[in-house]
Amino acid sequence: MPRSCECRPGRWNSRPVATYSIVARDATGSLGVAVQSHWFSVGSVVPYVESGVGAVAIQSFPNPAHGPAALELLRSGIAPEEAIADLLADDPEEAFRQIAVVDSAGHVAAHTGKSCIPEAGHRTGEAFSAQANLMDRNTVWGAMAHAFAGSPGDLAERLLKGLEAAEAEGGDIRGRQSAAIVVVRSEPTGLPAKDRLFDLRVEDHLDPLAELRRLVQLRRVYMLLIEGDEFVAKGDIDAALTAYRMGMDMVTDEATGGEAAFWTGVTLAAEGRVDDSLGYLERAQSQWEGWARLVPRLTHSGMLPDDPRLIGRLTERMFRAPQ
Predict the structure, then answer these.
(1) 35: how many CB neighbours lie within 10 A of its CB?
(2) Which of helix, strand or coil describes residue 244?
């Protein structure tokens, strides 16, 4: 933007941040934002999401105060369209802002200022908004909206489909660098970390969307491992093993460094099913030599019986595993 332009945005933020994003609520009530940009760590700038409240994306020349302020307005019962109007009412740089908001009821609104760098625009649909600036073509946000609306799966999958459609349509005129996704539960649990089903950022990568998809898949695996742990705590070992195995079936042992296989083996060994445990422990050991050295330490926390014969049998078999 020319330095002589009187409408140039404030010097505190004179670079355009973000390129394309999508905010949405799905039929389950989950809320989310996904974004990709040729900008380092875009996930630290654009998405603001709160369970039971709403999802907000701020971009183009964003005011970092707008994200938290939009959520506060939604929390007080203000509708998305009114929230955006309130945010921009006294903003001298309104023409440079791009903001999208969806609330917990699925009401949605978006704003693309007239001075956002072309190609820039947005498309709203049922409980979602796709928006973009600095695009190679003006068809990007429409492609995002079409892909999101027509894709099956949970909210994280549909958000990814939206991003991938944008990239396939030409994406950011500058290229690509970072991406992020945040998805929260429909209702708060009182534990913000538990509310966030997905909270993943790719800060700097040659193919950030492919890396983000990989992380989403890995997150799904660890969600199943956590579910398995919760079943163990309840004493439902069969349900725990089912969850563990479902997680392991989703990725290779290499993807988790043997983590899933190790804890499955430990659970079986702790239940006296030693013969069943050995194969899983070998699989873990083949990924990382430290797993066998961890086994004896688990007796300290009661995760394995303090039985030297058992520990010896487990570790002897593990140390024989090919590296």
Answers:
(1) 32
(2) helix
The total number of structural domains in the chain stands at: 2
In the predicted model, what is the mean pLDDT of residues 64-75?
97
Q: Checking phi first, is residue 186 left (phi over 0); if not, alpha (psi -120 to 50) or beta?
A: alpha
Question: Which of 205, 237, 252 marks a domain boundary?
Answer: 205
CA gap 62, 111 in Å, rounded: 12
Strand-pair partners of 17: 60
Query: Rounded to whole angstroms, how far apart are CA atoms 84 and 181?
Result: 22
Q: How far apart are CA 199 and CA 183, in angstroms?
A: 7
284 and 157 both lie in a single domain: no
Q: Are strands 97-103 and 54-60 parallel, antiparallel or unpaired?
A: antiparallel
Task: Check: CB of residue 112 under 8 Å from CB of residue 84.
Answer: no
Residue reference for tokens 């595993």: 321
Q: Distance between CA atoms of 54 and 48, rounded to whole angstroms?
A: 8
Q: What is the CATH number of the domain that holds 141?
A: 3.60.20.10
What span, in angstroms and rounded, lies between the C-alpha atoms of 152 and 158?
7
Q: What is the H or E stretch that residue 112 is in?
A: strand 108-112
Under a CB-based contact definition with an 8 Å cutoff, are residues 47 and 56 in contact?
yes
Is the pLDDT at 17 greater than 60? The verdict is: yes
> pTM, whole model, 2 decimals?
0.92
**Co-location of 196 and 53 in the same domain:** yes
Whether 3 maps to a domain, the answer reads no
Please report whether residue 39 resides in a domain. Answer: yes
Position 213 in a domain: no
Spell out the residues 6+ positions from residue 90 whose beta carbon is closer than 8 angstroms to its own: none
Compute the distance between CA of residue 284 and CA of residue 185 in angstroms, rounded to an integer: 32
Distance of CA 102 to the CA centre of its chain: 17
Mean residue pLDDT of the chain comes to 94
% of the chain beyond a pLDDT of 90: 92
- What length is written for the chain? 323
* pLDDT value of residue 291: 97
- Do residues 86 and 78 lie in contact, with contact meaning Cβ atoms separated by under 8 Å? yes
The per-residue pLDDT for 12 is 43
Residue 226 DSSP one-character state? H
